[in-house]
């Protein structure tokens, strides 16, 4: 399996700078909003005129097709098992976004074989010729095959929340990847932050820990605010960037994506409406006491 991973890595390195840019979105634990971020991040890229495909790597438990409100007859699993062609598993999403579903209703654990890795290598070669960005929405946690895959991808976005367990798991994920590939670029994002301060503190803890224990410098994307629009959008099965474009999280993400494309690594932080309201209320009360 490691030989297959190295073959995949070589294919990606050969094409860097000439073809599509590969990005993996990872988290140490589930429930941090990774698939929602991946989908809306990709939509913002597509709105900038980029050709984007999202590959849902959470095979058998995929969410991307649900978030965009679509059904997918075939999934990545069907392609990897040689049952359908790559073209048959690529679906059209909103705003010219393309996606490959991970499928749902998992009936058995997927054991990766050399044939499946060969299929993935072939898919990489084809997709890099057709898309500007290939976005991998990885399953939560780390497995041997997922770490092998991650070493072949250009850049990695690591998502955490302010919860201590999420921070610890995000660090562990980066450590696992770093030990396999010390040149890998990490971008950190704090999701569901209740305030800018909470986002900054969370990211600072991760940044400092990476430097202290691994002597690894990371890049900070910023933080996305806790926003009720996300839950509404999930229920409606329309990505929040489309259904609630003026919401705090959508406007913050829009700026973040533009800076990512331009490679301007200025931190972007959003404020939730709740936080803004409380800040104004505190300000009013403090003035009343003066």
Automatic annotation (TrEMBL):
<keyword id="KW-0547">Nucleotide-binding</keyword>
<dbReference type="Pfam" id="PF10609">
    <property type="entry name" value="ParA"/>
</dbReference>
<keyword id="KW-0067">ATP-binding</keyword>
<dbReference type="InterPro" id="IPR027417">
    <property type="entry name" value="P-loop_NTPase"/>
</dbReference>
<dbReference type="InterPro" id="IPR025501">
    <property type="entry name" value="MinD_FleN"/>
</dbReference>
<dbReference type="InterPro" id="IPR033875">
    <property type="entry name" value="FlhG"/>
</dbReference>
<dbReference type="InterPro" id="IPR050625">
    <property type="entry name" value="ParA/MinD_ATPase"/>
</dbReference>
<protein>
    <submittedName>
        <fullName>MinD/ParA family protein</fullName>
    </submittedName>
</protein>
<dbReference type="InterPro" id="IPR033756">
    <property type="entry name" value="YlxH/NBP35"/>
</dbReference>
